[in-house]
Amino acid sequence: MPDPSFDLGPKQAAGLTGKFVLYQVGLGVGIAGGSALVGAVLHLQGFAKTVTESPWALVVINTTAAALVLRVQLRRSHATWGQLATWGANWVSLLPFVVLLVLGEGILLSEFDNRVSVILPRPDWVVEFSLRLVDLARHPIGAPFALVVMAAVTEEFLFRGLILRGLLARFTPRRAIVVSAALFALMHMNPWQMPGAFLGGVVLGWVYFRTRSLALCICGHGFHNALSLFVPSLPFVIDGFNRPLAPGQILFQPWWLDLLGLVLVGGGAFLFNRQAPVAAPAPSPPAA
């Protein structure tokens, strides 16, 4: 049922997203400036670059920014962290279906990314920064922890646990899910990442609406990020999916892989829809 204590409108939800982004930017600038100062004082060449490109810096930035936004909103809502952290009943039994759904989504998004790259190629600096961040050879612990664990936990608490939950208390599920997914996409501030983030936000929003389970959303989000992180290390190579590319090269996935993605999405969605709890009724429209 809708939760009035977390009631949010679109402007309030956008404001929370904006604060989260501003906190991230401010913390990032602070870490960059502080590490540059330390490097200059101690004569440590490259110290600032090492710190700012570390996944641990991302952990600090994301966690602190999310905690600041959530703490203030919980106080305003007279709610506790325990009330925010809803895990849902029997979520473990639904997890395999969410994994199938996210796996299929990841395959299809990989091909979508290939198509977008034809129209809007990524600048070299964007590619290099992304590769450094997910470099398992340099960050065998930091990269998985930052992207698979902390990014999933902090962003799901904020965008599904707080923002979508608040929107569902006021609007129809479709509108609430679309608005929260759009804000989730905009938060990434990366035009090449936004379409995938929006689709992922819709999928996880649907999962949350049906189950009110942050645990399922965190696991689904973490699994999606794990695909991006570990697919290049798979013991087999598929064109357009995990084959290393030469500069400026674009490959498309084989048809059978795209078909597999569709089957996984359709099968995962069908099984999840059958086994998930009956959806709560939409809230009544406000009186004129």
Summarize the structure.
The chain is mainly alpha-helical and 288 residues long. Helices cover 70% and strands 0% of the residues. The chain has one domain (4-275).
Would you give an account of this structure?
The protein has 288 residues and is an all-alpha fold. It has one domain (4-275). Helix content is 70%, strand content 0%. It is built from eleven helices and no strands. The protein is globular and about 60 Å long.
Task: Name some characteristics of this structure.
288 residues, mainly alpha, 0% strand, globular
Helix and strand topology:
Blueprint: H1 10-42, H2 47-52, H3 55-77, H4 81-84, H5 91-119, H6 124-133, H7 142-168, H8 173-187, H9 194-211, H10 214-230, H11 255-275
Helix pairs in contact: 1-3, 1-7, 1-8, 3-7, 5-9, 5-10, 5-11, 7-8, 7-9, 7-10, 8-9, 9-10
Radius of gyration from CA coordinates: 20 Å
Instruction: Count up the helices.
Output: 11
Mean pLDDT: 89
User: Would you report the number of β strands?
Assistant: 0
Overall body shape: globular
How much strand content do the residues show?
Answer: under 5%
Main beta sheet, described? none
- Alpha-beta classification: mainly alpha
What percentage of residues falls in helices of 4 or more residues? Answer: over 70%
Oligomer: single chain
Give me the strand/helix succession. HHHHHHHHHHH
Q: What ranges have pLDDT less than 50 throughout 5 or more consecutive residues?
A: none
The span between the termini is 23 Å
For the record, the count of structural domains works out to: 1
